[in-house]
């Protein structure tokens, strides 16, 4: 039995990308071979709660780092999976050195805009340097790790939750009388640039623009929409995965102007839901094939131009949507989990040799 600890949260309502990934992987890991310990603040995902050989540590208001480190020292895991960059991770890696713990570190790199310039954050660089296995969540991310940091990075794609993200029935686009819908989904942070959704809504008053997400940019976007008289912009707030899937099946285009990403799961979700995508090219998402399942823009001008193309060519966006659904089939959580199974075994073998 291999024991794994991950500083990730099993809460059913948690939609943080790291936590979503870990929940999907843990739910599929063979409980006869892997005992997994996770964290939780509220009600855990029922699949995790019902999984044999699973421990859930309750995250309280105070004292979590010391309490969790104490647990890890009493029950030293074979693998520390998906480290973050907080005090818990720092504390455990220090303990690993001090007490010569035989725990293997498996680092999953899912966001690394700084890697494009070869200057990762010190804590991220530490997680990479001290790991037995380093994995990127996209082809581009793994290439950056190999080229910039000279590590033998593997690639494991995140899958797509087919319970929520699947295409609408045929006939979603009526031949006439149809007001197109453009959807944005993501945290409303400056680098996601949700204000560009408002700017496009001004240009296309007959098109419905829907914004799913919350964050510090929400107030700015609401004020901008009001100042510009945008009656075609709707703020949806935070959506659960099931709600987001329903929104995607009602939309025609997924518009994602974010400029700083790792490999955003939302692009895979949009593809699986049958949406043509317009996004930026800087992070080279594997979830989008440029000019086949959507458009990847090099500049803001091109971003606007490609949105124009999809809004004025319904047949093109229909064909791209069909290609997107086909592409999305390769991103499967069962396949990803099988790969993690192999990498956990490999990490154990490396650690035992050292």
Summarize the structure in words:
The protein has 354 residues and is α/β, with parallel strands linked by helices. It folds into 2 domains: 2-159 and 332-353, Glycogen Phosphorylase B (Rossmann fold); 181-328, Rossmann fold (3-Layer(aba) Sandwich). Helix content is 41%, strand content 18%. The protein contains 13 helices and 13 strands. The chain has helices at 17-28, 46-49, 64-74, 87-98, 122-129, 139-149, 195-203, 218-227, 241-250, 265-272, 300-312, 314-328, 333-353; strands at 2-9, 34-40, 54-58, 79-81, 104-109, 133-136, 154-155, 181-185, 208-212, 233-237, 253-256, 276-280, 294-297. The strands form 2 sheets. The chain has a 7-stranded parallel sheet, sandwiched between helices. Strands 10-9-8-11-12-13 form a 6-stranded parallel sheet, sandwiched between helices. Helix 4 (87-98) links the parallel strand 4 and strand 5. Helix 10 (265-272) packs across helix 12. The longest helix is centred in the C-terminal third of the chain and has 21 residues, at 333-353. It is elongated and about 65 Å long. The relative contact order is 0.12. The model is unreliable at 173-177 (pLDDT under 50).
């Amino acid at each position: 039995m291999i024991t794994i600890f991950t500083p990730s949260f099993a809460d059913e309502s948690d939609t943080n990308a790291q936590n979503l990934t870990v929940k999907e992987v843990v739910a599929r890991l063979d409980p006869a071979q892997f005992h997994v310990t996770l964290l939780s603040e509220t009600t855990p995902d029922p699949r995790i709660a019902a999984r044999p050989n699973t421990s859930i540590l309750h995250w309280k208001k105070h004292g979590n780092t010391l309490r969790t480190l104490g647990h890890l020292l009493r029950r030293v895991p074979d693998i520390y999976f998906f480290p973050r960059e907080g005090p818990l991770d720092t504390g455990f890696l220090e303990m690993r050195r001090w007490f010569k713990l035989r725990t293997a570190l498996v680092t999953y790199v899912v966001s690394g805009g700084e890697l494009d310039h070869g200057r990762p954050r010190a804590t991220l660089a530490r997680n990479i340097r001290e790991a037995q296995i380093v994995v990127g969540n996209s082809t581009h991310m793994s290439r950056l790790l190999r080229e910039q940091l000279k590590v033998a990075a593997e690639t494991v794609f995140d899958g797509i939750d087919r319970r929520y993200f699947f295409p609408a029935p045929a006939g979603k686009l009526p031949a006439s009388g149809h007001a197109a819908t453009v959807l944005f989904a993501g945290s409303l942070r400056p680098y996601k640039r949700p204000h560009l959704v408002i700017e496009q809504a001004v240009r296309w008053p007959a098109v419905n623009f829907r914004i799913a997400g919350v964050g510090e940019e929400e107030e700015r976007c609401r004020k901008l929409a009001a100042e510009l008289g945008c009656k075609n912009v709707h703020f949806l707030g935070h959506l659960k995965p099931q709600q987001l899937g329903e929104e995607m099946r009602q939309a025609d285009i997924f518009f994602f102007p974010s400029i700083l990403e790792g490999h955003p799961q939302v692009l895979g979700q949009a593809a699986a839901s049958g949406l043509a995508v317009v996004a930026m090219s800087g992070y080279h998402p594997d979830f989008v094939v440029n000019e086949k399942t959507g458009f990847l823009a090099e500049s803001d001008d091109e971003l606007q131009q490609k949105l124009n193309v999809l809004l004025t060519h319904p047949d093109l966006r229909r064909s791209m949507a069909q290609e997107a659904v086909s592409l999305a089939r390769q991103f499967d959580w069962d396949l990803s989990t099988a790969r993690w199974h192999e990498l956990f075994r490999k990490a154990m073998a490396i650690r035992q040799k050292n």
